[in-house]
Amino acid sequence: MHRWKTALSSLLLFAAPVVVAQAQTYTRLASLADGNGSNPFLLVQGTDGNFYGVTANSNENSGVIFKMTPSGTLSELYTFGSFAGAYALIAGKDGNLYGLSYGDGSPYQNRPGVEVVGNEGTVFKLTPQGNITRVFSFDGSGHGGTNENSLSLGADGNFYGTSQSGGPNVSDPLSGFGTVFQVMPNGTENVLYTFGSFYDPGSVILASDGSLYGTTQFGGPGACQQNGATGCGTIFKIVSESSFETLYSFTGSTDGAYPTTALVEGADGNLYGTASAMGPNGNGAIFKITRSGAFTVLHSFSGTDGASPTALILGADGNFYGTTGGGGSNATSTLAPGTVFQMTPSGTLSTLYNFCSQPNCTDGQTPQRLIQASDGNFYGVTFNGGAFGTGAVFELTIAQPPAIAANNGVVNGASFASSGIAPGEIATVFGTNLTSLIGINPTSGLPLPKQFQNVSVTVNGTPAPIFAVDNVNGQNQINFQVPWEVAPKSTASIAVMNNIGASSAVMVPVVAAQPGIISYTSGGQNFGVILHANYQLADAGHPASPGEVMLIYCTGLGAVSNPPADGAAGSGQATIVKPTMTVGGQKGTVQFSGLAPEFVGLNQVNVQLPSTLKSGNQAVVLEIDGESSNSVLLPVK
Questions:
Q1: Of the ranges 151-165, 246-260, 516-530, which one carries the lowest mean pLDDT score?
Q2: Are residues 493 and 523 in the same domain?
Q3: N or C: which end of the chain has fewer CB within 10 A?
Q4: What whole-number distance in Å separates Cα of residue 565 and Cα of residue 424?
Q5: Coil, strand, or helix at residue 423?
Q6: How far apart are alpha carbons 401 and 454 in whole angstroms?
């Protein structure tokens, strides 16, 4: 192949932006040991991109808040006093962390300027540098209660949580049955509800309708009995301080019992949650409940696919993801490893990872909370296992099916115009998760393949020839040839398929022609791939001359006489309609317009430049059937 053909081929392979495909891979990022606390039970991502977690223990009998970089480097951020720690941790929008403390609150380390965290617990603020201040202190009675066990941040900027005991008009903090409370950022606290018997309320969320929804682990008319507590748990709704409604009471049979994870508001406006025990298979269940209280069991854990769910979140793809604290394919009579799972909104569950898949459970055991980070991957902690047996932090990347970009997802491969596709042209599809390949990956040989590295592009259900599948710096694209058979003035359905699945189809107009001149960038300017008759590229060192015949390389000029087979090289077949060409505002004389020999989907236009053309970089535009190409520059003597 001539040198100009090699250079031109490289220009056809890659162009503009999008995002990287992910493989389903489990990585243990860090193992917890006494130096940074042990037995972690929750993890959040800060606005700085780092991760922050809470451990139940340390070598000083207190909890620790640790920091972890995305690469897995651990450091202790704050250590509580003896028999103290945190129940909750939230990443605030202001870059600080907010949490809920318990215990005597004496800081283990004597840090100047650090406020003592209160005896019955506090809502606290913690900077990424480890400086802690008190937002609100509980005293066990009218101020929120005691044994606080949850905290969430509402869309209104206020904090909402629950306590297991205490409450207004209770003289002994250990008596009373707990509360639902609100704490404002300025420290103002409101008790929204006081329980009249032992229900052990869990987390509450402020839903999009402005109401609070939450669960209690016990209570209700169910016949469950556990450690002196009665009832199988409830789901409740609070509209205002004077409006408390029990939406549902668990029975302990097919609906499960003891809901402990926070409810999740789905994209459909319904609420989703888990029952940690019982259900049809005795291992807990995942449920859906409408705002009016209609309850549905979506999945009952079998033990092999997990048992005792410990987390449930809504993923960015609309599916639900979570963990189970036990069960899984590696479970034995003495080992309860746990799992990470995915569930569709309709209830189809897939196990994504089984813990204790590595010897001695060095990958972790008994997973707790799960989050989806800003990179789209999932991160979590295990209470046990890891290199030291006292917990680990893990990352799980989930393979996703391809998705074509919503805006300008299918464009002309030269101009990137998105007004439609033309028969036979070189086109580009942009999207996410198109390929797991890295770099520019051209196909080789002719005719072009219609499947390459497990990737295909279909047009109206038929695979199209592929030039290249590219993934450079996270930018995914596929260059393909539009089949000659597509009919202008119609609409084509385009989809991408790979070994993970198929994208949703996008509908694209089919136009008779959509000219796009192949271009390259030099000195920050866009120059056309325009050659002299000897195939020398016209550039600053080899400018065109007025009156000279030049070869313009483009795509999208539409139908040709006797078109080759899809994916086969052209051999000079003329286009049915000739384009017009202007250069420097003057019309050139088009002598030939057709398929470039030895190339697929590439047009060649031979044009004589006006003899009165001025020197300098002149703008070149092609036009056909009322459609104009991109404007490119041509250096002229």
A1: 151-165
A2: no
A3: N
A4: 10
A5: coil
A6: 12
Under a CB-based contact definition with an 8 Å cutoff, are residues 292 and 246 in contact?
A: no
DSSP H helical segments within 140-264, as ranges? none
Rg (CA), the chain: 32
CB 452 within 8 A of CB 466: yes
Q: Which H or E run includes 6?
A: helix 3-11
Average pLDDT, the chain: 89
At which of 470, 492, 510 does a domain end?
Answer: 510
Residue 537: count of CB within 10 angstroms of its CB: 17
The two three-digit tokens of residue 67, written as one number: 């920091």
Q: Let me know if residue 451 belongs to a domain.
A: yes
- At 7 the three-state DSSP class reads helix
User: What three-state secondary structure class fits 191?
Assistant: strand
How many folded domains does the chain comprise? 2
**Partners of 183 in the β-ladder:** 159, 189
Do 247 and 237 meet the contact criterion of CB atoms below 8 Å apart? yes
- 478 half-sphere exposure, CB direction, 13 A CA radius: 36
Strands (E), 84-171: 85-91, 97-102, 122-126, 132-137, 146-153, 159-165
Using alpha carbons only, give the angle 370, 371, 375 rounded to the nearest 5 degrees.
Answer: 140
Q: Among residues of the chain, what percentage have pLDDT more than 90?
A: 74
70 in a domain, yes or no? no
What is the 3-state secondary structure of 436-484?
CCCEEEECCCCCCCCCECCEEEEECCEECCEEEEEEECCEEEEEEECCC
How far apart are the C-alpha atoms of 353 and 25, rounded to whole Å?
9
Least confident of 176-190, 287-301, 442-456, 594-608: 176-190
Same-domain status, 477 and 520: no
Nearest to 32 by CA among 367, 393, 394: 393
Instruction: Indicate yes or no: pTM above 0.90.
Output: no
Domain with 587, as residue range(s), is 516-636
**Structure confidence by residue, pLDDT tens digits, 199-216:** 889 999 999 999 999 999
Q: Worst-scoring range by mean pLDDT, 2-6, 108-112, 505-509?
A: 108-112
pLDDT tens for each residue of 22-68: 347 899 999 998 677 899 999 999 999 999 999 987 666 678 999 99
**Which CATH number does the domain housing residue 544 bear?**
2.60.40.10
CA dihedral (481, 485, 486, 488) positive or negative: positive
CB 330 within 8 A of CB 344: no
In whole angstroms, give the CA distance from residue 48 to residue 129: 12
DSSP string covering 260-320: -SPPEE-TTS-EEEEESBBSTTSB-EEEEE-TT--EEEEEE--BTTBEEEEEEEE-TTS-E
User: Are residues 461 and 553 both part of a single domain?
Assistant: no
Q: Kindly report, residue by residue over 348-385, the tens digit of the pLDDT.
A: 999 999 999 999 999 999 999 999 999 889 999 999 99
Residue 145 has a pLDDT of 54
Do 532 and 470 share a structural domain? no
Task: Give me the residue label for tokens 């929120």.
Answer: 144
* Alpha carbons 242 and 406: distance in angstroms, whole number: 46
Q: What would the pLDDT profile of 78-106 be if each residue is shown by its tens digit?
A: 988 777 788 899 999 899 999 998 864 44
Which residue in 14, 49, 8 sits closest to 430, CA to CA?
A: 14
Q: What angle do CA 74, 76, 79 make, to 5 degrees?
A: 155
Same domain? 522 vs 591: yes
